[in-house]
Amino acid sequence: MTRHYNFCAGPAALPAAVLERARDEMLDYQGRGLSVMEMSHRSPEYVAIAERAEADLRELLAIPENYRVLFTQGGASLQFSAVPYNLLGQGGRPNFLHTGIWGKKAIAEARHLVGDVHIAASSEGNGHSAVPRQEEIVLSDDAAYLHYTANETIGGLEFDYIPEARRPDGTEVPLVCDMSSSILSGPLDVSRFGVIYAGAQKNIGPAGLVVVIVRDDLLDRARPDMPSLLGYRALAEAGSMVNTPATYSWYLAGLVFDWLKNDIGGLAAMDALNARKAAKLYAAIDESALFANPITLGNRSRMNVPFVLADASLDAAFLAEAEAAGLLNLKGHRSVGGMRASLYNAVPEAAVDALIAFMADFEKRRG
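RESULT FIELD:
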């Protein structure tokens, strides 16, 4: 069997070493005579898997002791509801930075739940080609928290800094971040955040799992009408097992954490590799007369690289020939069109080299 290069934005590529280990443990996990999929989540064997995964994630991200790590379900989109339910019990309004489609979805869900929200800054004016700068961010006087999307998967727009979240009077409020498509791509100062959440299916593991990192002092700010399964306090006290968790996705996430630690050498090494992959591809785009990327240089995503062809009539041929060459899932999101190459942690540098070579050949023949 030949494995092709997968540039899908999610569910995304998984490391070959992780898939091979899961294959080897599929029918008989460490001599237990059953698959992890079949284990009780309450069994000592599975609890050990879950605890090891959390410990490895804490080590990778250097998560401080006053933060809880939750492994929950519903996709990152469910956190669009969970965050306001958990953080608005003491009043105030949610504040947002609007930098693309996922930020827009989070805003829409908050409006649905609470009615009034405040947009502290937006990149709509520049077509979401550059993020707002810190001096442009103005929180409301009653801000309960500031939410932003670190990396817009669809538009390929990434923050190059961590925003400060302060009301006009200087009062600091919790910073909440949707980090679904950039978490674990490099080192991170978790202490700057109140809540971080991330869907698993990009850099953590397969779909079906969400990681939430929440500071202890925010566990008791929930609205009284919050659905019980969304509660951060309940999840934290139950070891993320209020109900049956996504056991196999959690297990695979643990294998990914182990791979990052022991095969890659940690997040500093992963950071250097990701920088190199993205720099190569952007250089190839910028040097081309056929391909172009619309994002401001400092805010180009390292994880999701959108590009368009100067002649859109060539799009179908590009995609068909790319797939025939073993370069899969390069079609851009339906809302923006064009192409998109997602370069998550598990996408090897060889995949980027192969894509660049194909693009050069395509331009020579068709450009």
